[in-house]
Structures are given as C-alpha cells and as structure tokens.
Amino acid sequence: MGEGMLEAFSGAIIPREVETNLRNNDKIQMDHVFLLSRILEKGVKIVAYSPNIPPKVIKEMMMTPVGSVQEGLDVALQLSTRRRPKVLIYPQAQRTLPILTNKDS
Predict the structure, then answer these.
(1) Which of 26, 35, 38, 41 is 20 to 30 A off residue 63, Cα-Cα?
(2) Torsion over CA: 100, 101, 104, 105 (sign)
(3) Which residues are 48's β-sheet partners?
(4) Which residues of 51-89 are buried (b: 16+ CB within 10 A; e: fewer)?
(5) How far apart are CA 69 and CA 4, in angstroms?
(6) Cα(89)–Cα(72) distance, integer angstroms
C-alpha cells in the first residue's frame, strides 16, 4: 500500500474523517495514471498547458506541452486530421472525467 493511501488515515478516528482528509489533501494518485494511460492507448493526443508543470514532465507523460492556451488550441487544430476538427478545452482536468463519443454532430 502506497504512502499516499495511508496519509488519508493519519489522525482519523472515524471513516468520515478519512473522507475529510481526502477532500482536503487531494493528490493525483495512481488511478489517475491508469486512466491517462488508457486514454493515450486509444490514440488520443493530449496537448497540455500548465504554468506549474515543466514541459519536460508533460513530455514524459506522453503529452504535448505548450506555452499558452492559445498555442494549445493552435497545436490541437494542427494535429487533427478531421475536416471540421473538434477540440476540448478542459480546465482542471484532474477534477472531472469527460465522456467522449465518436459521434460527429
């Protein structure tokens, strides 16, 4: 069991306190890595902008780093092979999970 999992139990006496610890100390855990790898495995290209993460780290995570939201949009449009490309701008991606379909609408 990883240290990250044990941190949530630190000082907790009842399960509700564990949940509170999790909410107050949210960290990206391995399940996020698993989900990201599954998305990348499907051939999805992810263009990422974050002023808090060095571009080298974004590249190591198999994503394309960019220097601004506008640059990200430009790169995403260039990467698309569709005649009418669709781009999802997804702020705070770690907090939600989109449902993507293949429907062209």
Answers:
(1) 26
(2) negative
(3) 65
(4) eeeeeeebeeeebbbbeeeeebeebbeeeeeeeeeeeee
(5) 31
(6) 9
* Number of neighbouring beta carbons within 10 Å of residue 8: 19
Closest CA to 36 of 98, 80, 102: 98
> What is the value of pTM for the model shown?
0.59
* Inter-residue contact 20 to 11 (CB < 8 Å): no
- Scored b (16 or more CB within 10 A) or e, 9-22 reads eeeeeeeeeeeebb
